[in-house]
Design goal:
Elements: E1 2-8, E2 12-19, E3 22-23, E4 25-26, E5 29-31, E6 34-36, E7 40-41, E8 44-47, E9 51-53, E10 57-59, E11 64-66, E12 72-75, E13 81-84
Antiparallel strand pairs: 1-2, 2-3, 2-8, 4-7, 5-6, 9-12, 10-11, 12-13
């Protein structure tokens, strides 16, 4: 089973993937310019202004948005989705 974990904040969208009970880990992470040897879950972040093409599915509390092939979704600085072709 594959699980997509995400957190949507005011200006960013954080996502990680868990497949068959395994989550990708970073073995050496930097924290405030210091390398720490503690494994941490690998999280990818899309900040305001980032764009994703393809077939993303966006799940919100009140709606699910499917972006069809050929379209692009961009998160603007206010946290709104801008969908263009």
């Amino acid at each position: 089973m594959t699980v997509i974990n995400f957190d949507m904040g005011g200006t960013s969208f954080d996502i990680t993937l868990t497949k068959d009970g395994q989550t990708n880990l970073n073995k050496n992470s930097d924290l405030l310019r210091y390398c720490i040897g503690v494994p941490m879950i690998q999280v990818e972040t899309l900040g305001a202004g980032a764009a994703v093409a393809g077939l993303p599915i966006i799940e919100e509390v009140t709606a699910t948005i499917v972006i069809k092939p050929g379209w692009t979704v961009k998160l603007d600085q206010s946290g709104a989705y801008v969908i263009t072709k």
